[in-house]
Amino acid sequence: MKKHRRIVFLFIIVFTVLLFACNLLLRQTSVFHHGPDTGNLPWNLTLVNKQYAVPKSYSPQLMTLSNGQRIDKRIYPDLQAMFDKARSQGLDLQAAYGYRTKTQQDEILQDRINALRKEGLSKRAAREEAELTVALPDHSEHQLGLAIDIQAKGDTDKDRLYTWLANNAYLYGFILRYPPNRTDETGFEYERWHYRYVGKEAANIVFHKQLTLEEYLQKYK
Ligand SMILES: [Zn+2]
Q1: Do 150 and 204 lie in a common domain?
Q2: 51-77 tens-digit pLDDT
Q3: Residues with Cβ–ion distance below 5 A, ligand 1
Q4: pLDDT over 70 for what percent of the chain?
């Protein structure tokens, strides 16, 4: 009888340890593949970076702009207001790249790798170099429909446009997603054209405290 109890006891311990280990493993893999638990975060704060993939549950509400680019329609009113204001200041601009599918993202990455290989880089070096400027499929904010690459149009001076955006985009809920010298946190080099919609409240804090989206979510959410 005593021996029997010992076996049951041992079984319970082994079972508990196994359960704990499985849970830990599952949590690690799910964090890596499907993004963080963003259950409490609104759509506009969805985090996508090298570590966090587009959440499986995320579905963009797409609309097509007059130039054929697609964005999430929920950001359209603020985007339009920002562009109107910029134009009233004599800046002509366009949303050059908006929403991208996973397949399109993969093609962009492969093109970049191929170009670098043609320059003489090894397979591994080309991939590493490409991944500094191009996101992996499912790890690009463009797949959310909330990121836009903005370009100057006509004879608008690029420097003037990007300075204006850096100082004013937050008023419309957009942030400079990859600021200079923040590669360690964002995983990307400075991209002065890439703006991400996070909403006015978050953008205001990100701008005034000079945070990355990663830092903002860590400190405020
Ligand atoms: Zn971009």
Answers
A1: yes
A2: 999 999 899 999 999 999 999 999 999
A3: 149, 194
A4: 85
Given the residues 129, 131, 185, 191, the one annotated as active site: 191
One-letter identity of residue 206: V
pLDDT digits 0-9 by tens, 131-162 = 988 999 999 999 999 999 999 999 999 999 99
Active site residue 191: yes
Amino acid at 112: R
* Contact of 174 with 206, CB cutoff 8 Å: no
Give the residue from 106, 103, 133 showing the smallest Cα distance to 193: 133
Domain span at residue 119 reads 102-139
In the reported structure, the alpha carbon of residue 133 is separated from the centroid of ligand 1 by a whole-number distance in angstroms of: 9
The tokens of 205 are what? Answer: 């804090």
The whole-chain average pLDDT of the chain stands at 89
Distance from residue 134's CA to the centre of ligand 1 (Å): 9
Q: Report the first-to-last Cα separation within the chain, whole angstroms.
A: 54
70, β-bridge pairs: 64
pTM as predicted: 0.81
Number of structural domains in the chain: 2
One domain, residues 132 and 151: no
